[in-house]
Design a protein that fits this description.
alpha+beta, six-stranded antiparallel β-sheet, 4 helices, about 35% helix, elongated
Amino acid sequence: MSLKRNLLLLTLLLFLSAGSLGLLRPAMAGLPAVSASPTPIPERAAAGRSFSKFCNTWMTKLARRELDNRRSARPRRSGSKWVLEYIGYAKHHDRCEAKATGVSQNPYIGKMVYTEAKYRASGKTKESVRNGSASVISLAETEVMEIFRFDGKKWVY
């Protein structure tokens, strides 16, 4: 065999060996390669607790958004009543779970599921639908899934 062919075979053998050992998979999958000295990954229980807290904070933000949605919605006449339609959210999330990824740069992903609803307030006056004293019904509900990543220090949207 020629020297050139031997080098080619050796290179191919090394490439295949590295792939079977999992050394090439992150780069081949389009993910960042794992560094030689990875940053310490928080334990799974700690990541789960921090994600649970993050989910509760996220639901608080959605509650504020619901108030803003209601304030910015424009009441309209519908027959003898006034109606106001806006998007709102469940008070609590349905699911909140963190899972390990095996990648040191983003060691965990979090999945949160909650309900988004389209509400209609109806009342005799424009003011009653604006200030919340009117009756409110849910027109439609949608299950929403949000995916977050943990960058090693905090959860990121």
